[in-house]
Amino acid sequence: MADRVAGPEIERLIQLLARLPGLGPRSARRAALHLIRKREELLAPLSDALVVARERIVTCSSCGSIDTSNPCTICRDVRRDSSVLVVVETVADLWALERAKVVNGHYHVLGGTLSPLDGIGPKDLNLSNLTERVSDGVKEVILAVNATVDGQTTAHYITDILKGSEVKVSRLAHGVPVGGELDYLDEGTLSAAMRQRSIV
Ligand code: ZN
């Protein structure tokens, strides 16, 4: 073990940064040094932003997303199509769809997927108010879950619990990614793309 090169405060900063996704110990050291060097331009505003985030960010009691208000900005936005409800696994997925500007409805964030192997059941997901939300004028529920086994298990479960309602339930198509070459795709993706082919 190498001797310490800095005091415990700096070590702690590095250790905390190393817990961020995508940052290992080496990049955490670089990030810490960068922050310390840019104390006024970066470290100070970052620490202020962290304090604000800690104090003001809440989970929306309607959709399960995060924001600084409850209900969140999206739930309060009257310009959105309230007949469309997009079900996503995580807030990151919601943000990805918003970046792509592909849908102008409302969202429902599950907070994960059903995973029997990991002991994650329906009670562990944000499902308690889903049918209630759907009965409130929603015409289509779009299941925008990941194309993983757990994602598909979750999609089946939600389709089942919505069966009694009038709502149309749709799922994202699986298949060839934009810019993708057929030769590089796995058989599962190719067969899904073939099954879900569309008329041009
Ligand atoms: Zn919301």
What is the compact description of this entry?
This protein is α/β, with parallel strands linked by helices and 200 residues long. The chain has helices at 8-17, 25-37, 39-56, 73-76, 91-100, 130-134, 149-161, 187-195, and strands at 58-59, 66-67, 81-88, 105-109, 140-143, 168-171. The protein has a domain at 82-200: Dna Topoisomerase Vi A Subunit, Chain: A, domain 2, CATH 3.40.1360.
Strand order in space, largest sheet: 4-3-5-6
Structural class: alpha/beta
Give the distinct bound molecules: zinc ion
* Number of contiguous helices: 8
CATH architecture of the domain at 82-200: 3-Layer(aba) Sandwich
User: Helical amount among residues, as a percent range?
Assistant: 40-55%
Would you tell me which CATH topology of the domain at 82-200 applies?
Answer: Dna Topoisomerase Vi A Subunit, Chain: A, domain 2
- Give the overall shape: globular
**CATH class designation of the domain at 82-200:** Alpha Beta
SSE order, one letter for each helix or strand: HHHEEHEHEHEHEH
How much is the average pLDDT?
94
Strand content: 5-15%
Sheet with the most strands, sense and barrel status: 4 strands, parallel
How many beta-strand elements?
Answer: 6
Question: What separation lies between the terminal Cα atoms?
Answer: 64 Å
Spans where pLDDT lies below 50 across 5 or more residues: none
CA-atom Rg in angstroms: 22 Å
